[in-house]
Amino acid sequence: MRICLIASSRFPVAEPFAGGLEAMTHALARELVDRGHDVALFAGPGSDPRLPVELLDLPDFEPSEIAMADVNAPSRRWMAEHHAYLSLMLGLAGGQDRRFDVVHNNSLHHLPIAMARTLSVPVVTTLHTPPLPWLESAIALAPEESSFVAVSRATARAWSHVTDAAAVHNGVDVSTWLPGPGGGPAVWTGRLVPEKAPHEAVDACRIAGVPLVLAGPLSDPDYFAEHIAPRLGDGVSYAGHLDHAALARLLGQASVAVTTPAWDEPYGLVAAEAMACGTPVASYSRGALPEVVAPGAGVLAHPGDVADLARAVLAARGCDRGAVRRHAELHCSLTRMTDQYERIYARLVDRDLAA
């Protein structure tokens, strides 16, 4: 099939990834091409030039000083995103969509949903986050124009007041996230931001007497300076923002991976990555993590309960690493995810042709 993938215009689809959305889109694009599909990708500047896909250009736009002087003018970043998605959707509506059989929207922008009715090919949108007001508005105005998929059953339930969405769990490439020997310190990975609460992972590991390595982008420097930097040392270190190869080595050496969502995690890609490396997960039981971390592959703790998380850290270290890896192969693989999306694409194309 000929597939147009839409990602974030703000963040590149390239390592080290800004987040799970970019990592998932990169893996999906590569796997679709490997299966013989023709893929074009709309994504932020600096996206991986080694991806075997056509990268769709983002047009430059700089609003005039006169326009930005308006008291209600949005930020320049907002305008740049708006212009990029408007240009894409107008181009597709103007006939470029005939190059494709299906459009798969993985962005968090409202225009691919709001303008789906202007396209002559089916559009499927993956919901990567809890409900956002701009997306709710777009869906409310065009509820039948897109099909919707959520990255977990929990996320599908969160959107159920707006739309029905099938659940397709994200997947990781288990041929690159390889099992390691374990036995090392605990590892926490992800964006270092308040809603991920890595400081609670530090506190829990201190209670458990387990050293901890943090890795991920400093998406909120003020949070890092106030809550993370003072906790470093005495068995706790920060490894930086790592690419997948370095992260897989770190996870493979870890005795346990810790996740500490202070929000309803839509999926929890970091847990899938850890389990693919054979590393059990100790996590708060929030959002989709109870779907992702099965008994035997990790241990769940009461949300926000640092002492209970310390218990989970110690208990998870006793999981059989081979069983953890098998769980990831069966339930968290890129192959399984792509199989499901291929079936969705085929069903939408067949329905479109029948109409």
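Above is the first protein from milestone M3; the second protein from the same milestone is given next.
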Amino acid sequence: MTWVFLGIAVVFEIVFALGTNATKGFTRLWPSVLTLLAAAGGIYTLSLALRELDVSVGYTIWTGLGGVGTVICGALVFKERITPARLVSFAAIIGGAVLLRLTAV
């Protein structure tokens, strides 16, 4: 269940980041409510995952995959550009997350 909780936390992180953009500075009610709920849900499910994972591994994977997911979804939803440099950066983040998991004691 640890990895399920972490996966759910990553989804919440992506919703939180995209929602923050949609709030327009927290001036729009429903995007603001969604963003705050996503933030709370992400922190809660991350805390459940951290019962079994080291914080250095869990937090890094959460923020790394959340960041990659946010960029991908930002490109799909907000038409943001994904450049070759960004692709290399995504690969480095994913590679780092995998290496952290493989070297976790």
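Note on the second protein: Helices lie at 2-22, 29-49, 55-78, 84-103.
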